[in-house]
Amino acid sequence: MNNRILIVEDEARLAALMADYLRQSHFEPHILGDGLAAVPWVRENHPALILLDLMLPGRDGMEICQEIRGFSEVPIIMVTARIEEIDRLLGLGLGADDYICKPFSTREVVARVKAVLRRSGSQSTLHAQGLLLEEASLQATLHGKQLDLTAVEFKLLQHLAAHPGRIFSREQLMDRIYADRRVVSDRTIDSHIKKLRKKIETVAPGEELIRSVYSVGYKFEPGEG
């Protein structure tokens, strides 16, 4: 089970206190005091949740949250010292899962962490034909080898793999991976599928996981030529 919690907080005493309480609740906290270090650490370590301060040296929490959402759905709790910032954060729709305002009790932080992790518990691990997909970290492996997928590629593969044998039209797949209903060409799906197949071929030559169904769409059906 992934119990890693990333604390991005430049107030050293506060960060250490949060880490102590999280450790007592059987989490594995890691502290970063600089905003510039956050994104590389997340890419490398795939935490279960991030406590992200709004005001940080190097780079602010809003920018960090936006960039992380480009490649991961890891739960993020934003932390701010100004209560008036909460409305602005909510209005920006950055993709944070919760917000907490300083000063707060460390027990409240632990309670919020547990609550967010419970809510995101549906973001589980999917096993299918040697494929392992971990939604919380957007990490994908095939036969133990890493597939370096974008967030969109991950969602597309996950949706297909969760319904083996079922055929999805391009429109259905677009509705699934573009929740904001942006206007994109149906050929965008073809492009994503092409890139997915190339990455799968690199890891497992000759193995076809995604099949084209002429004039209809695509399906996940391993072992079919």
Describe this structure in words.
With 225 residues, the protein is of the alpha/beta class. The protein folds into 2 domains: 4-122, 3-Layer(aba) Sandwich (Rossmann fold); 125-220, Orthogonal Bundle (Arc Repressor Mutant, subunit A). The chain contains 8 helices and 12 strands. It has helices at 12-24, 38-45, 61-69, 85-92, 106-119, 151-161, 170-177, 187-203; strands at 4-8, 28-32, 49-53, 76-80, 98-101, 125-128, 131-134, 139-142, 145-147, 168-169, 210-213, 217-220. Strands 2-1-3-4-5 form a 5-stranded parallel β-sheet, with helices on both faces. Strands 6-7-8-9 form a 4-stranded antiparallel β-sheet, with helices on one face. The protein has a 3-stranded antiparallel β-sheet with strand order 10-12-11. Helix 1 crosses helix 5. The longest helix has 17 residues, at 187-203. The mean pLDDT is 84.
